[in-house]
Amino acid sequence: MTSQRKMETAERKQQLTEVALGQLALNGYHKTTVSDVVKEAGVSQGTFYLYFRSKEEAALHIIEEGKTELLKVLEQGYRNEETTVEEMIESTIRLFYDFFSFAMEHRNLMILLFIKGYGADTPIHKAALETFNALERASQRNLERSRELHLLPQDTDIPMQASLITNMVTSTISSWLFGPGLDVNHTPGISAEKMARSAAMFGFYGIIGNK
Question: Pick from 26, 116, 136, 200: most CB atoms within 10 A?
Fold first, then answer.
């Protein structure tokens, strides 16, 4: 296959992926059909099946790609060297800002992960859950590195802290993007920057805040 042909193939698969994600976010997994996807993409069903064996495979591919990109965001915030508490807070704010910005820019993916992936077939639901589990494991590695650098007390319960942080951030993103009723048309009333700072300060100082 020539380099030009490979590029065209990759572009077509990306197009189908983006269209499929849009349909899944709009209609949910069960109501989305391959016919919906190919109609919007302007291709034949045969073309779709050149890239994906089924709707399920396409949805799983989308979730796997999303998980990879989310992990990249988290890994950019890994601790690499000793630093002050103030610098830790600022780096955490930047990390959370990247998370909130990613969520806003990839709203359809968030809809699939938080709303439309639930109640779907078991493989889709499991893939969505595995995405959150992968984020928790990555957060745990980051905290372990922080403890190695003596940025955290040596007796810190890393698994518990990773779980608390991951659930706080993902739940906050869900409420921020979609409101308490998980409305896909909800418009956030608070900026990603303010949400990131609030989440980071809460993570470090709790409900009382920094005195």
Answer: 116
